[in-house]
Design brief:
With 258 residues, this protein is an alpha/beta fold. Helix content is 42%, strand content 11%. It has helices at 20-32, 55-68, 81-89, 106-111, 138-155, 175-183, 185-189, 203-209, 217-229, 240-253; strands at residues 2-5, 38-41, 74-77, 94-97, 116-120, 163-166, 196-197, 234-235. The chain is globular. The structure holds 6-hydroxymethylpterin-diphosphate (HH2). Residues 3, 5, 7, 10-12, 41, 44-46, 77, 96, 98, 118, 120, 166, 168-169, 196, 198, 236 line the site of 6-hydroxymethylpterin-diphosphate.
Length: 258
């Protein structure tokens, strides 16, 4: 999954793809590099973000890009039911919700269509989530949350075959929490639906390497590779070509299917 942020303020590529033509060209570039689908986001959820972009503004950013990319499998990264409904009407293959469909009306918006949905775990909300993340047992708690959300979406009439889960690396988690979740990612795959992992350029990699977001390519590829080895089915990445090469090596060794 290649990331295209149609935002002025995303943590690693904010402002680069706010212009629809630039976003469309970047999506095509990532597909040529070997992405299977593109995740389009029009609201930054970086730590500290107050998430105050209106549905109208989000749609103003997204619509021309959705319409310009009808030939590409698209995921739309949004927490708003209004935006979900338009994205589905425009043909999105997946809705990626960092809030796991907890907004009023979100379950119904997804149940009305037939696209896939990614349910992500987040402790708190982006504005404050990195202030003091706390868990007794992070793996058990995140797993219990996702198991409950799988049950909730199925009860709302969304078929299990449409569901993807994500432990939400960096969303209300310290470096140690993120590493614990990565070590035990297999346990999430055991919940019976595909697991998505998003480590690309995140600040935990900066804590490990001491490098800023623009210099985290090698660290991002390493984290993606470990996630794949530990059962992730979808890797959410900004740098598709490098990640593809790493996965090809892993596949050649016979550890995963490319
Ligand atoms: N990470 C980001 C955004 N959306 N969705 C899922 N399912 N999993 C993630 O790990 C995830 C996500 C943050 O990255 P990015 O889109 O690059 O930044 P920003 O939120 O600043 O736009």
């Amino acid at each position: 999954m290649g990331v295209v942020n149609v935002t002025p303020d995303s943590f690693s590529d904010g402002g680069r793809f706010l212009d629809p033509a630039a976003a469309i060209a970047h999506a095509h570039r990532l597909m040529a590099e070997g992405a299977d689908l593109i995740d389009l986001g029009a609201e930054s959820s970086r730590p500290g973000s107050e998430m105050v972009v209106s549905a109208d503004e989000e749609l103003r950013r997204l619509r021309p890009v959705l319409q310009g990319l009808r030939d590409i499998p698209l995921s739309v990264d949004t927490v708003k039911p209004e935006v979900m409904r338009v994205a589905l009407a425009e043909g999105a293959a997946m809705i990626n919700d960092i809030n796991a469909l907890r907004a009023p009306g979100a379950l119904a918006a997804i149940a009305a269509g037939d696209a896939a949905v990614c349910l992500m775990h987040m402790q708190g909300s982006p504005g404050t989530m990195q202030r003091q993340p706390a868990y007794g047992d992070v793996v058990a708690e995140v797993k219990a949350f996702l198991r409950q959300r799988i049950d909730d979406v199925c009860a709302a009439g969304i078929a299990l075959e449409r569901v993807v889960i994500d432990p939400g690396f960096g969303f209300g988690k310290t470096l140690e929490h993120n590493l614990d979740l990565l070590r035990h990612l297999r346990q999430f795959a055991a919940l019976g639906v595909p697991v998505l992992a998003g480590w690309s350029r995140k600040s935990s990699l900066g804590q490990i390497t001491g490098k800023p977001a623009g210099e985290r390519l090698a660290a991002s590829v390493a984290a993606a590779l470990i996630a794949a080895q530990n059962g992730a089915a979808i890797l959410r990445v900004h740098d598709v070509a490098a990640t593809r090469d790493a996965l090809s090596v892993l596949a050649a060794v016979g550890k995963i299917h490319d």
